[in-house]
Amino acid sequence: MSDSPENTPNQVAPGQTHPSWDYDEAFSRQRGLIDTEEQERLRRSRVAIVGMGGVGGVHLITLARAGVGAFCIADPDTFEVANFNRQYGASLQNVGRNKAAAMAREALDINPELDLRVFETAIDAGNIGEFLDGADVFIDGMDFFNIEARRLLFKEARRRGIWAVTAGPIGFSTAWLTFDPNGMTFDEYFNLNDQMDRLDQLIAFAVGLTPRMTHLPYMDLREVSIQDKTGPSASLACQLASGVAAAETLKMLLGRRPIRAVPWYSQFDAYRQILRHGRLRGGNRHPWQRFKRWWMHRKFSTPEST
Known about the structure:
By secondary structure, the chain is an alpha/beta fold. It has one domain (5-194, 212-217, 233-281): NAD(P)-binding Rossmann-like Domain (Rossmann fold, 3-Layer(aba) Sandwich). It is 33% helix and 16% strand. The protein is built from 10 helices and 9 strands. It has helices at 23-26, 36-43, 56-66, 99-108, 128-132, 147-159, 186-190, 198-209, 235-254, 287-300, and strands at 10-12, 46-50, 70-74, 115-119, 137-140, 163-170, 173-179, 264-269, 274-279. A hairpin with a 4-residue loop joins β8 (264-269) and β9 (274-279). α8 crosses α10 (287-300). The protein starts with 9 loop residues before the first strand and ends in a 6-residue tail after the last helix. The relative contact order is 0.14.
């Protein structure tokens, strides 16, 4: 592990405790859904979230409000005006501030007792071990285009026996996948390897995340730019993504079932009012998935589309 300052996390000091703040009282309205013993288990749990933008920031807030007591969070970016339509921490007071640092303060305003390890840099081979150390669950909150770090993190989470979730905002929907550390790997499900170029890896990720593509009838793919790393994204979809990611995470932390890991997939489209889920045998190796990847490659490999 690198000892350079940029790879060293900040151990954020607990927030200022309000005289009337009490953990049991703060999360008492969950009784009937989560019992006292389970609530204490959440209090002792640690969740690692990479990315504090569109989905990652809401993941943190949703789980903090559920009473999870410890987090590792990371993001090297700063908030800007272009984030305002969808990112929890995007506000005038946070423009120019590091996303992880800003979201740490937001979470401490909810639970001043939180144990937070904050990385204001990207997670890479030099600091991934420290980032995942002690984590019970890993949640992917990274930008869609960050495929290299995504593969690295899912691989290391599996090696450490950590359950992992990815839930993305897709149009006005969310699609989500769960990875059992003893089941199908991230690269196996998406059919990824180091010999593939970056475009093909991104296409494989998009097609594998949304096998039913419920969003295509209303999404203008001309607004997707591989070169600029931009695409359509909406706040409502980020909220949906965090809802399902939190539900999966709570089941993992509390030992509840069922948890349907890949090759099971799900997509809920609030705009079209439809839920699609199923078991994708072979993941992206399925013939229909291969055809969709070929079609997407043709569409995005032309100069005008990238």
